[in-house]
Structure formats: structure tokens, C-alpha cells
Amino acid sequence: MISSILLAAAASVPATPVWSPTVGIIISASSLVVLLLSFGIKYPKVGPQMPLLPVSIPTFIGAMAFGHVIGIGIVLGLTNIGRL
């Protein structure tokens, strides 16, 4: 049995964009930009190193996670203003 509160909340959720290459490019570009900005971290080379990058694995994972959050925010923001 679905609660009436959940049904009321589902009716007020705005439409989100369907997956498209544009959405993927925005999220990927955001992740790469944040990875480049990760050199501003106080200790970016602490821990096991990435094979081809001059950062550690924890720095890489943190940068990718934050990049995805930023990319999703950009996609939802552009959708809400009607640009995507």
C-alpha cells in the first residue's frame, strides 16, 4: 500500500531530462574539470598513486564524485531554465 504522502510528493517532482549524449558530455566535462582542480588539495599525493595521473587514488575518487555532483547540478539547472 502506497502512502498518500508519497503520491502527493510524486506529483510535485519536476520533469528531469532523459539521458542523452549532451547530458553525458556535461557530466564528463565537469568531472575532468574538477580532477584538474584537485591539484589545489593540500595533500593530493597521499596514499596509493594512480598509474598515469600525478594524484593519489583517494584524490581521484573524491574529484570524480564531486565532478558528478557538479555535473548533475548543471544538468538539472539547465533543464529547469529550459536550455536542455
From TrEMBL:
It is found in: Membrane. InterPro entries: PSI_centre_PsaK_sf, PSI_PsaG/PsaK, PSI_PsaK, PSI_PsaK_bact. The chain crosses the membrane at residues 25-43, 55-78. Pfam families: PSI_PSAK. It is a multi-pass membrane protein. SUPFAM superfamilies: Photosystem I reaction center subunit X, PsaK (SSF81563). It comes from the Bacteria. Keywords: Membrane, Photosynthesis, Photosystem I, Thylakoid, Transmembrane, Transmembrane helix. Belongs to the PsaG/PsaK family. This is Photosystem I reaction center subunit PsaK. The gene is psaK.
